[in-house]
Each structure stands twice: as structure tokens, then as C-alpha cells.
Model the fold of this input.
Amino acid sequence: MSAAPRRPGFPFVRQSAAPRVHDAIAARARMIERLMAAGIRDALLLRALGAVDRRHFVDSALALRAYDDDALPIGLGQTISKPSVVARMLQLLVQGGVRTPDGQRLGRVLEIGTGCGYQAVVLGHIAEEAYSIERLRALHEKARENLRPLRIANVHLILGDGMVGYPQGAPYAGIVAAAGGEAVPAAWVEQLAVGGRIVAPIAHKSGVQVLVVIDKTLAGIEQRVLEAVRFVPLKSGVS
Ligand code: SAH
Done:
């Protein structure tokens, strides 16, 4: 096995050759073990989650907590979802979305709510093309900055109102929302390919937010309500 790449630490911290307690690779490996124990089994997804460094997407002051199973602030009152929720939603997407002809990955996918860009990059590993739309200009720009050094060609960031989807990339093999509204907008269902799946949080009549899965089949639309979740609100307009 090759050694972890050296990163510059604080000027007063000597980098030792021995693995560090907070080494990102070890922390990520522990995160993957926790996710597997919690039922995340899809090999494609586990590889993707293991390949993306969450620390790169959070404020440096929060870097040591990047692999904890917590939602973390990313500015403007928004949060990066905790790893277990990202994994749960993406596993649902992978299981139900349309695959490429070789069956290796999902086709084109759409994410509503780019935030810091973490989930968009994970999507870039599990899908042929990922489109991610964000309504807050400052976060869209932050995500652009986060992605630039990673040089990923198949992740496309868009500034816009995700309530109307992104018709230019449709039809989508899968759509995943990181913000929850009253209902799933009709535009998302329209822009979903037959055989595709939407995974999104929505408000439930009980007052809590729940995760829903919508499958579009030749026979019509099937919706399943899953567990309670807590996402930031889906809002309209760009600001
Ligand atoms: N997937 C993100 C999590 C972002 S939090 C990550 O990995 O960091 C949810 C994001 O959805 C917020 O940034 C919020 O601004 C955005 N959002 C809310 N309503 C939206 C809409 N209508 N269109 C696009 N983005 C929206």
C-alpha cells in the first residue's frame, strides 16, 4: 500500500512519517466502516465515498470533524449533510436510478442544492454526468472554488432555482434533493427518465420532514415515504 500523501500542517506541527491519529485516510476508512455497519452495501457508492475528502469542503476550523457523523455549517445558514444521510440517499438513488448500458454507473443525474459541492463530487463518481444547482450565489461560487483544484470534468455546477429543475440536462437517471419543500416539484418528475428515481425530503402532514422516493415507470409514478429527516428548506428564486 502506498503511504498517505503528505500535507502541509501548521508551521509548528512537524509532519511525521507515521500515520497520524487524525489522518484523513484513516478517518475516512472509519467512516466507511460505520456506513457499512449501518447497511450501506453498494460497492460503487462505498468506493465513491472513500475517494472524496470531506475535509476539503468544510471550513478549516471544522476539518477534524469532517468525518464525524454530523451535519456541519457551510455558511449562509446552510449545512453539509452528515455522511450517513448522504450515503442513505445516494444508495437509494443508485439502487433505483437508470444505469449506463455497461451497468457500471448511473447515467446523468441532477442534484438540487449544491451547497459546498461535496455531494456533487460524490455524484460525479457514481454517475456519468452530474448537474448540481444552487440558488445562493455565494455558495455556488464557494462550490466552484472547492471543485476547481479537483479538476473533475463530469460535474457541472449551475446557479439557479432548482425548484424548476434543470431541463437542459433532462431526462435524468436520478434526481436527489438536499433541501426539503412542501412537495416534490412537478418539474422534477417531468425531467426524470422513465426507469429513474427521485430521492428527496418533503414536509409530511405530521409536521416532520420525511424522505420520499419517487420511481417513474412505464406504468406511472410510485411514491414511497421513508424515515423522518432534517434538511434545510427548499426555497424559490436566486439570491
Ligand atoms: N449537498 C450539499 C448540501 C447543501 S444544503 C453539500 O454536499 O454540501 C442544501 C442547499 O440547498 C443549500 O445550499 C440551499 O441554498 C440549497 N437550496 C435550497 N432551495 C434551493 C433551490 N430551490 N434551488 C437550488 N438550491 C436550493
The longest helix spans residues 24-37. Residues 69 and 83 are 6 Å apart (CA to CA).
